[in-house]
Design brief:
The complex is a heterotrimer of chains A (162), B (792) and C (291). By secondary structure, chain A is an alpha+beta fold. Chain A is built from five helices and five strands; from the N terminus they run E-E-H-E-E-E-H-H-H-H. In chain A, strands 2-1-5-3-4 form a five-stranded mixed sheet, sandwiched between helices. In chain B, 29% of the residues lie in helices and 24% in strands. Chain B is built from 21 helices and 29 strands. In chain B, strands 3-5-1-12-9-10-11 form a seven-stranded mixed sheet, sandwiched between helices. A six-stranded mixed sheet of chain B has the order 7-15-14-13-8-29, with helices on both faces. The longest helix of chain B is centred in the last third of the chain and has 28 residues. Chain B is globular, with a radius of gyration of 28 Å. In chain B, 62% of the residues are buried. In chain C, helix 10 packs antiparallel against helix 11 and helix 11 runs antiparallel to helix 12. Classes of the chains: A alpha+beta (162), B alpha+beta (792), C alpha+beta (291).
Chain lengths: 162, 792, 291
């Protein structure tokens, strides 16, 4: 049996120190060790995108990353965006545009969009759809998600201008 | 006096933002696997890797001794603890199949659970699976339903004596004579392959047993908590109040979570036995291998018409591959029988014969999947209509126009016995054509075709029966009642309104839409209403959310209960305000006396009734809680027309969808934003069914599509923008005027895409008989058609 | 779907990693981006006794121009290649290919060294390395070693790498002047592995093709260069007939497999179609780029 290792990782700005088995997936570490169940697990082979989180600011599949690798890293999850009473601008656009139904893919979708909004112009719907294509949603048919991201991209532009 | 529109805010019909969203957007949802119970045992299953085999021995000793393992169970360990599950039916020629939580002596499909390991976590439970030795004596396996019909085919269930688990025929008129006499006949052998519902949340459940209270609580990702409660109470011989099934937030279902599964029974049995929480969180491999599949039918069909395009007769012979077991509670008959009962669609088809056989094979069971049978019926019928239009040199829209049931013909009785109450069949067609500018689309297509491009336009019109009441069983002959729903609405002592329901929302936004209905009927503020659902303990009887029923049935129950509660509130107010009942109305959480400035808030009334004893006469203190059961009895028709425009790259065979329009009559629209979302999502699933989604087994019954790499569901890049038009006409048959609409997109889309593909390929003379039309199949079709055109 | 247990090592330097790997070569796997490895671990299709995590070897994350070409550290992420101005300027075909690699979250993690060592026959990067005559540089206890990309891949998920060998960098030699390039891929879904992908470079001088390169992925057990097709183009004047003949030859010269998604015939057909497209596009880009 493999030895546990102690890791120190910052999750949503909070420093944690935990002993983990090397094989523990980051998705399970977040959900089961830390109780942050907002990160969802949909396939555990890197296709569906539901478990997407930010690792040192870059989006990544939490199911393809071991908790032990997170030693010294900064992890952001959906719980680190807005709160129920104070949604982030991206979360607000998702709500305004009805970009979620069952809400299961939503945390991964949001974390992907945070990274997409940072890295790409998202100037056309085709570019938005390409950007979203690594996150599978079975409820919305994506139309409302595209609209929400379009609005968030425009809002980002306004913020930059102002 | 205030503007009545201000006094009576109309929530129904408004794009009200969903109350579910804030929790789901912030990771605060409560999905089954989110429930953290310290000390819970995790199950991993050793599942059959044989399609068909006898189990001659199981050795679990090594697994049981592995670190972190608590116990290992086989079917033998469950003897006496739980009865087998049987989906019974009053249908003739039907054979139920017993289903055990763990395979008992024999496995019939790959993925069937054989051994359960309970360990401190899933990692250790999976480690122990390698320590289990199972001796199988392989039996001949059959994965082709035609082969399963053969005299020498292995019989899956010997007590049935046949692989034909159900058989049904609908007939009206003399089909042989009509076909023989008809001047125009089109037909062919159609194939719609097997698909998977693929909710993004895999199935998961956790059972907890409170020994002190003898209370078993199953938290499950299910669409049918009420059905499961009733079934578990039977199987475990427990009173209903000792079994509670909770489905708080559920990550999509699409029918795949609308049946009772072995895993749910097992965790319940073991939690009760062990007095410890027992959890199973299915992974994607388990989902693709064991969550009920959909479709999988072979349909030989023929449509006869007069020279003017009038439909004369339709015949369909259907083989439905239902997999290894008859699923609970719907039975193996559900999906294939709906293919033949809905085949004539929204058209006047005077003569009809439809026969179906549900055939067992060594594959996972099929069950309800969004649309149930009707996507196949619509695919076949709409293909026949387009084939006939081509034969008659008529525009496909025009041929439909000539045959759709007209407004004056409602109620119209379909040859299979279904009655269309009234719906805008023709209007959907016209509105869809107008929205997409159909004449221009055809002009543009002509130009593109002249330039050698493969552009196609496909229409699909259909009708479905939604909000089915108690007169018709949701599945043929099924002994459980799915035709009623219950609402309990309460104004509590703080003035808050709570609506309790038996439905189980899993993305439909019913916490929002039912609050909209109650707000309008009761005159309450949306913010003061909370909808509770997804919990079998909320009402005496409820089944859940499936079959496009919840807005109709729960909405109707909400209307009925809210109206009665409002009467009681107004009677109480009439004492308090010293005004006649007729002069009092309620809006925005207040009752007011018309023409005066006298009013009371719901909160003040609640206090007067509950707390400030003496303010009301003793016999005027009525219960401010009303329970009503609603039964639409028959149900109501929902209709739509889909139009798809696409282009096929003749070289790569890549299909690009350019336009997609849906015009639908889903009755009185409660929340157009939510309806749009339901349509978009259902259409995307239909597009997947038409182009890429296919569960593939090899001849020996091995599953070849066991990951999301191989089972290809559409991503944002593959789905076009979808335009929607809502007719917004009240159903005459339901309380509230609502029609069900959750499944429609998946019913229309495969047919619309198939017709558009066939239309695009028309210059090559190719027809579409098979779905999904994957690039590989399209390549073969185009290659053959091109070779034929060259005269090879 | 949880991985079997393994021992975990996280060296801070290449030297340390080389020693660790040398000691456990037979039972250890290197963990770089993990985007291909971890799914195999989760499915328990691979159960290595040890993982050596090389993500802390910052010395392997670099992009440096060298003699008109590029040295790319093995730990360079796909997203860095996708957005690198140097890559776009010197090897636009690589930038173009990167846009087809999975999705942002995967490109953020996936590394060039990992992709080459994993050797998926349908992956973009091994194919582009083959196209560009990349040198794949490695280290083992025995010292440094260089492999020609064209000889590096030996079959599905297999390479010439010895068990104790670590890919350290890739060198892409400069392209000749007046060279155009193009990449085209057919997949079922955006970002999926290719059913077939083809890339080309075309170099011209004095109105004739002096050199052409054509590489394919997804159409064989390893990424291939189509020598016969390249030979058929060299020295010729570029025209539609020439491309048509070359494309047909490309389709005929691959020996694809049949799987769930596509038959060998369809793959062969796609190779021909995509070859026609990339050759035409590569040539067109010279005219635009170097006029």
């Amino acid at each position: 049996m493999s030895k546990h290792r102690t890791i120190k990782a910052t999750v949503n700005g909070i420093a944690y120190e935990r002993s983990v088995e090397p094989r523990l997936l980051l998705s399970d570490f977040l959900r089961q060790t830390l109780g942050l169940t907002g990160t969802h697990v949909g396939c555990e082979h890197g296709v569906c995108g539901a478990c997407t989180v930010l690792i040192d600011g870059d989006s990544a599949r939490a199911c393809l990353y071991f908790a032990v690798q997170a030693d010294g890293r900064h992890i952001e999850t959906v719980e680190g965006l807005g709160t129920i009473d104070d949604l982030s601008p991206l979360q607000q656009e998702f709500r305004e545009h009805h970009a979620l139904q069952c809400g299961f893919c939503t945390p991964g979708m949001l974390m992907t969009c945070v990274d997409l909004l940072k890295k790409y112009p998202l100037a056309s719907d085709a570019e938005i759809r390409d950007g979203l294509s690594g996150n599978l949603c079975r409820c919305t048919g994506y139309e409302h998600i595209v609209r929400a991201v379009r609005a968030a991209a425009a809002r980002r532009g306004r913020k930059d201008d102002g | 006096m205030a503007d009545p529109d201000v006094l009576r805010p109309k929530h129904i019909g408004a794009r009200v933002r969903r109350v579910e969203d804030p929790r789901l957007l912030t990771g605060q949802g409560a999905f089954a696997d989110d429930r953290i119970v310290p000390g819970a045992l995790h199950i991993a299953f050793r599942r059959s890797d044989h399609a068909h085999a006898l189990i001659s021995g199981i050795d679990t000793a090594a697994a049981a001794a592995m670190p972190g393992v608590f116990a290992v169970y086989t079917a033998a360990d469950l003897e006496g603890l739980v009865e087998p599950l049987r989906a019974t039916s009053r249908m003739r020629n039907y054979h139920a199949t017993p289903l055990y939580p763990l395979a008992r002596g024999r496995v019939r499909h790959v993925g069937e659970p054989v051994v359960a390991v309970l360990a401190e976590d899933r990692y250790r439970a999976e480690d122990a699976l390698d320590g289990i030795a199972i001796d199988y004596a392989p039996l001949a396996a059959v994965s082709d339903p035609r082969a399963a019909l053969g005299a020498d085919a292995p019989v899956l269930h010997e007590e049935a004596g046949t692989n034909v688990l159900a058989e049904r025929e609908f007939s009206r008129g003399d089909i042989a004579a009509e076909l023989a006499a008809a001047p125009i006949r089109v037909g062919g052998s159609f194939r719609f392959h097997r698909k998977a519902p693929t909710a993004i949340e895999n199935r998961a459940c956790i059972a907890e047993y409170d020994r002190g209270r003898r209370l078993l609580t199953l938290t499950s990702s299910t669409q049918i908590p009420g059905v499961i409660r009733d079934a578990l109470a039977d199987l475990l011989d427990m009173p209903g109040h000792s079994v509670r099934v909770v489905a708080a937030d559920v990550g999509g279902g699409f029918g795949g979570k609308a049946s009772l599964y072995p895993e749910e029974i097992l965790v319940a049995v073991l939690a009760r036995r062990l007095g410890r929480a027992v959890r199973w969180t299915g992974d994607r491999l388990e989902d693709l291998a064991t969550t009920s599949h959909g479709f999988d039918e072979i349909i030989d069909a023929e449509l006869a018409l007069d020279r003017d395009g009038t439909m004369l007769a339709l015949s369909a012979e259907v083989i439905g591959d239902v997999g290894a077991y008859s699923i609970y509670p719907w039975t193996a008959a559900l999906e294939p029988v709906q293919v033949v009962s809905f085949m004539p669609g929204p058209y006047r088809v005077p003569t009809y014969r439809g026969r179906v056989r549900a055939v067992a094979t060594n594959k996972a069971p099929t069950g309800p999947y969004r649309g149930v049978g009707r996507p196949i019926a619509t695919f076949v019928m709409e293909r026949l209509v387009d084939m006939a239009a081509r034969r008659l040199s008529l525009d496909p829209a025009e041929l439909r126009r000539r045959n759709l049931v007209r407004p004056e013909e409602f109620p119209y009785r379909v040859a299979s016995g279904i009655v269309w109450d009234r719906s805008g069949f023709g209007e959907c067609l016209e509105r869809a054509c107008a929205a997409i500018d159909y004449p221009k689309l055809r002009t543009d297509q002509g130009k593109a075709r002249a330039a050698g491009r493969l552009c196609g336009v496909g229409i699909a019109s259909y009708a479905e029966l939604t909000g089915i009441g108690s007169r018709i069983s949701a599945a043929p002959g099924m002994p459980i009642n799915t035709g009623t729903e219950t609402a309990t609405i309460r104004l509590d002592s703080t003035g808050a309104v709570t609506g309790n329901f038996g439905i189980a929302s899993h993305g439909q936004g019913l916490e929002t839409t039912l609050a909209q209905v109650i707000a309008d009927e009761l005159g309450a503020r949306l913010a003061d209403i909370q909808i509770l659902q997804g919990d079998s303990a909320l009402v005496a009887h409820g089944t859940g959310t499936y079959a496009s029923r919840s807005a109709v049935l729960a909405g109707g129950a909400a209307v009925s209960a809210a109206r009665l509660l409002k009467e009681r509130i107004i009677r109480a107010a009439s004492h308090l305000l010293e005004a006649a009942v007729e002069d009092i109305d309620a809006a925005d959480g207040r009752v007011f006396v018309s023409g005066t400035d006298r009013s009371l808030s719901f909160r003040e009334i609640a206090r007067a009734v509950y707390t400030e004893i003496g303010r009301l006469p003793r016999d005027a203190r009525e219960e401010l809680e009303v329970t009503k059961v609603y039964d639409p009895f028959f149900g109501t028709a929902t209709a739509a027309t889909h139009i798809a425009a696409l282009e096929i790259d003749p070289q790569t065979c890549k299909v690009r969808l350019d336009r997609y329009v849906v015009a639908e009559d889903c009755g009185r629209v409660i929340n157009p934003m939510i309806v749009d979302g339901q349509v978009h999502g259902a259409v995307a699933q239909g597009i997947g069914a038409a182009l890429t989604e296919e569960i593939v087994y090899d001849e020996a019954g091995q599953l070849l599509t066991a990951s999301l790499v191989d089972y290809v569901i559409p991503a944002a890049s593959e789905v076009p923008p979808i335009e929607t038009i809502h007719l917004d006409t009240e159903s005459p048959s339901t309380l509230g005027g609502f029609r069900g609409m959750g499944e429609g997109g998946t019913i229309g889309a495969p047919a619309a895409v198939a017709n558009a593909l066939a239309d695009a390929l028309a210059p090559l003379g190719a027809e579409i008989f098979e779905l999904p039309m994957t690039p590989e199949r399209l390549f073969r079709l185009i290659t053959e058609a091109t070779a034929q055109a060259r005269g090879d | 779907m949880k991985p079997a247990p393994f021992e975990y090592f996280c060296p801070d330097s290449l030297d340390e990693a080389v020693v660790l790997l040398a000691g456990r070569a037979a039972e250890a796997k290197l963990l770089a981006g993990g985007q291909s490895l971890v799914p195999l671990l989760n499915f328990r299709l691979l159960q290595p006794a040890a993982l050596i995590d090389i993500n802390r070897l910052s010395e392997l994350a670099f992009l440096a121009e060298d003699r008109g070409g590029l040295r790319i550290g093995a730990l360079t992420r796909h997203h860095a290649l996708e957005t690198s101005p140097a890559v776009a300027a010197l090897f636009p075909v690589l930038s173009e290919a990167m846009a087809h690699v999975a999705h942002l979250a995967v490109r953020n993690r996936g590394t060039i060294g990992g992709s080459l060592a994993h050797a998926d026959p349908a992956a973009e990067l091994p194919m582009v390395a083959t196209l560009l005559d990349a040198e794949i540089r490695t280290r083992s206890a025995a010292g440094p070693h260089t492999h020609d990309a064209r000889d590096f891949f030996t079959g599905p998920l297999s390479t010439v790498l010895a068990d104790d060998e670590i890919v350290t960098e890739v060198f892409l030699p400069a392209l000749p002047p007046r060279t155009g390039s193009a990449f085209a891929e057919f997949s079922l879904r955006r970002g999926d592995f290719a059913i077939a992908a083809v890339a080309a470079t075309v170099t011209v001088a004095d109105g004739r093709i002096t050199a052409a390169r054509l590489a394919v992925a997804g159409a064989d057990e390893r990424p291939l260069r189509l020598d016969e097709v390249e030979a058929s183009l060299a020295g010729q004047c570029f025209d539609a007939d020439l491309v048509e003949t070359a494309a047909r030859l490309a389709g005929e010269s691959v020996n694809p497999f049949t799987d769930l998604r596509a038959s060998a015939d369809y793959r062969r057909h796609l190779v021909a179609v995509l070859a026609r497209r990339v050759l035409t596009e590569a040539h067109a880009r010279i005219a635009v780029g170097a006029a």
